[in-house]
Amino acid sequence: MNARIRFAVAVVVLGLLMTGPFLLTAVVLFADANEAERAGLMELIAPRLPLGGLITTIGFILGVAVLRNLFRQYVQGLLSMAENLRLMLGANRQFRVEYGGPSEVQAVARAANDLAQQRDDLLTDVEAQIAAAKASVEEEKNRLAALMSELAQGVVVCNLDGRILLYNNRARLQFKALAQGPTSASGGALIGLGRSIFSILERGQITHALENIQQRLRKGSSEPVANFITSTRAGQLLRAQMAPVIAASADPADGEGAEAPAGHGQDHGHGIVEPKVTGYVLTIENITRSFERESQRDQAIHTLTDGSRPALANLRAAVEMLKDDPDMDPETRLRFVGVIEEEAARMSERLDRTMNEFADSLKTRWPLEDVLGMDLVAAACRRLEARLSIATRTEDLDPDLWIRADSFSLLQALTFLASRLQDHYDIRELRFRLSAEGRMAFVDLIWAGVPVSSETLLTWELEPMSVGAEVTPLTLRDVLERHGGEIWYQREKAVHRAYFRLVLPVAATPEADPQALAAYQQASRGDSRPEYYDFNLFGFQDTGIDLDRRLADLAFTVFDTETTGLQPSQGDEIIQIGAVRIVNGRLLRQEIFDQILDPRIPLRPEGIPIHGITEDMVRGQPTIDVVLPAFHEFCADTVLVAHNAAFDMRFLQLKEESTGVRFQQPVLDTLLLSAVIHPNQESHKLEAIAERFGINVIGRHTALGDSFVTGEVFLKMTALLQEMGITTLRQALEAAEKTYFARVKY
After folding, report:
1. What is the residue extent of each domain of the chain?
2. This prediction's pTM
3. Has 701 been annotated as catalytic?
4. What topology does CATH give the domain 543-743?
5. Where are the alpha helices (DSSP H) in 151-202?
6. Least confidently predicted of 22-31, 109-118, 427-436, 447-456
7. Among 268, 424, 643, 701, the one annotated catalytic
8. pLDDT band at 347; cut points 50, 70, 90
9. Which residue in 243, 158, 239, 228 sits closest to 199, CA to CA?
10. Which of 130, 159, 383, 546 is in the most buried spot, having the most CB atoms within 10 Å?
11. What kind of fold does domain 291-358 have according to CATH?
């Protein structure tokens, strides 16, 4: 029996107590009296009946008021105190019960606060001891996470169900580049903790590679890895290497009472237990650009071979005619010489065009890196002054020129040339110049004085680049071929100068991705390293969204929308969608969806100060038919969570027909869950709930900011729901449906 029913019963009992004696007396008197006595009694009672009824009524009203006051102060006060005590027990340890109501209730509140303080002191001591015991483990864990986060290669770790339990920043950026349409800072629906790798890579290839690894493990291979090349849905080529994650030790009891999957820790009857594979590590590299370079290289070779055959044939024919007929008349000879000149010019033009178009593809496969030209020149100046004591200067340096180069071998080459100029021509000062033309970069080494002959330069190209005690088998030509470059010797006769020009490939400078840059800057401003790992997911079993699964075992997408108004059925539109994921009881602040939309209708002026989104901000943004499919993919296989979810879901439902996207997963509403947990609280607004839980509200009335707050509130609620015996998704949905707020429609 709840408090309201008990109050109603108390009022009825009070009424009976006040009117019962009079009614009983009247019944007794009238039952034993005759007609004359009854008439006399009526004459006696009738004049006093109105006054007695008034007194009784006033007494009843005063009794109800006193009873109501006592009920509010004691019953409701104690019920509210009980809810607050639950907050102190788990959701908000800093919360304390206020000293209100009668002195007896205040005494209980003081005692509760004293007990809470003692409990906090004990918990603080216990937590300090636990933290000290876990310090070394956490240090190793964080060291591994930091290492994985900074690796230059994309790394993804999955459990046997293909659920991602670790990925590094390189993998996040790689998969973000593969995404199409609006995505989150973490790459949209492509990658995220708890997501399936099969949304990116083919399941069949992963399974086949895993089977190959298990077969190698059975044969005792020391390097059980598998390599394969696959393509994404966007047509990108990926090279992947798979290595198994093997359990450190096998528990003999694992095989008892449970059926082990084939190939996982089984004894095949030979006394040898096969290593138990618990997951796998994927090292992923996007080779699309390399493949395109190979194609360009093939095209360049085809251009230089098949394209040169006609010209060579004409040259050969003209030369043979001149050789066979030495007495050819001058006019005919001149015509054949013209053919030779014309074909030679065509071949030279074709070679120059191929050099410009395919300079980046004609490089050898030696690993080259992008280096700023000015940095290379500065390093060369320091090296020459330190090693050779030669004065150096610079002129006409292009400050924005990036070169694709092996910096160390180039510095060796420049040092070698400078030493030869110093030893053979007594050059005491060198100048550097930096410029570019098309896809070629020019590094000029300039000196004044004696010129160098072409034969001398050819000799220097072929000898090992040894300078003093530094000996290397590499030649200048080796270095140039490594870069797919050349060295030219030219003179500036007017100023009596000469220079060697190193022709090198220009580094590719793709345009920066504004979203990726913004996400990187946001992550850099954070107080902690992005949470890209969760090793507890090794034991995660994917069984879909089962209503009878525990809330702790589910993944959630907490979302919010900003809209042009509050009437979705009357034409208001979504202007922003923000969302964040919860996996394994953790709010993943780096795996977000945040997108402003163009509603194609004017914004309401009164709404702009609330959400802060202006007409300029929505102009040119994607529309709902582009954003909603991307958001649908982001929250796939998760339970939706929102505050006042009926409002947001109505906007999404009205777009189902136009976008072809249906959100059919279960939806939990923190507004309804608050009414389940705290039925005696006056307010269930998001700010009030956050204040009760001790959550700081930051970024309110932005879709992403509200999603963060709602996510933190929901995590606090799950603990309180569990204390109430509500542990499964079905139980949470059924409890929410029974609240008064579940009747609100939009």
Report:
1. 3-91, 291-358, 369-505, 543-743
2. 0.56
3. yes
4. Nucleotidyltransferase; domain 5 (3.30.420)
5. 169-178
6. 22-31
7. 701
8. confident
9. 158
10. 159
11. Helix Hairpins (1.10.287)
